[in-house]
Amino acid sequence: MAGGELTRFAPSPTGLLHLGHAFSALIAATHGRFHLRIEDIDRDRCRPEFETAIFEDLAWLGLDWPRPVMRQSDRLPAYQQALDRLAALTYPCRCRRADIRAALSAPQEGALPAGPDGLIYPGTCRHRGHDQAGPDDVIRLDAARAFAALGLDRIAFRDQATQPDRDHALTATEFTATIGDVILSRRGMGTSYHLAVVIDDAAQGITLVTRGRDLLQATFIHILLQRLLDLPTPRYLHHRLIRDDAGKRLAKRDDARALRHYREAGATPDDIRRMIGL
Ligand code: GLU
Q1: Which CATH number is 1-73+243-278 given?
Q2: What is the pLDDT of residues 54-108, one digit of tens each?
Q3: Cβ(125)–Cβ(94) under 8 Å?
Q4: Whole-angstrom Cα distance, residue 121 to residue 109?
Q5: Which is it for strands 167-171 and 154-158: parallel, antiparallel or unpaired?
Q6: Residue 1 pLDDT greater than 60, yes or no
Q7: CA distance 143 to 257
Q8: Is the shortest distance between the CB of 54 and ligand 1 below 6 Å?
Q9: pLDDT digits (tens, 9 = 90+) for 160-203
């Protein structure tokens, strides 16, 4: 495939890498030169021993990557700069999950449609200005205002994967209804996954983002942020997900599928490739 691409594998050190991560990393490596990026903005959940394990497990798989490795915890000034730049399109929000549920009058989370970040925010704090921000507030993007500021009525992209449904589009109205006002800065983090990923993919000059299909909806958010911040939009390839025998997507807590445990049980990197169909 396109060997000239610059791709990345961007795990969070919140657990051991499992078969799904191995698949993602190997896909990134087969599509070009890949950067490893440590997504460690969630200081409460990240652990240095998991970061060490990431390096060891990837090296054991036979992968190599340029050093030094970018760590998001070193990048807070870059995120703050972007937040300042977007200030006119964002607002501080003090709603907790229970407030959001109450505003949506939903007794349980599952009862309502959810976007990539959970419940669609009902906009309770949308009128608040930054001068009213409290220390525990999050910062949200006013999605409708963002589309209006760009004079944009839809976002579209073509997936580089070979699925039959390769073309994806969302109108501004669909975006506000199915994704909503996403968080750009989480409590105590100074950024969010969406903001950090967009800034770092641009800073590293990533030309092809390879990641799981579970993040397909998030791509609309990322393209919107790229437009707002005048950053280039890379190509996207959303790959299939590795599932367990019951068909469930693997999660970090599924320790049984950790690469490390297969290795300790005597598996070779070739066995891993076979297990994930590569
Ligand atoms: N840190 C994210 C994860 O572990 C990366 C997602 C992405 O590739 O954009 O899922």
Answers
A1: 3.40.50.620
A2: 999 999 999 999 999 999 999 999 999 999 999 999 999 999 999 998 898 866 6
A3: yes
A4: 12
A5: antiparallel
A6: no
A7: 38
A8: no
A9: 998 888 999 999 999 999 999 999 999 999 999 999 999 999 99
Q: Which position has the token pair 């990539």?
A: 116
Measured in Å, residue 143 CA sits from the centre of ligand 1 at 22
For the chain, residues classed under CATH 3.40.50.620 are 1-73+243-278, 75-233
Is the beta carbon of 197 within 6 A of some atom in ligand 1?
A: yes
Neighbours of 147 (CB within 10 A): 22
How confident is the model at residue 106, as a pLDDT? 67
Task: Name the pLDDT band for 110 (thresholds 50, 70, 90).
Answer: low
- Ligand 1 atom closest to the Cα of residue 8 is 8
The domain 75-233 having CATH identifier 3.30.420.40: the answer here is no
The pLDDT tens digits of the residues spanning 13-55 come to: 999 999 999 999 999 999 999 999 999 999 999 999 999 999 9
Which of 45, 194, 197, 236, when mutated, tests ligand 1's pocket best, judged by the most ligand atoms within 8 Å of its CB? 197
Convert the pLDDT of each residue in 240-275 to its tens digit.
999 887 788 777 666 778 999 999 999 999 999 999
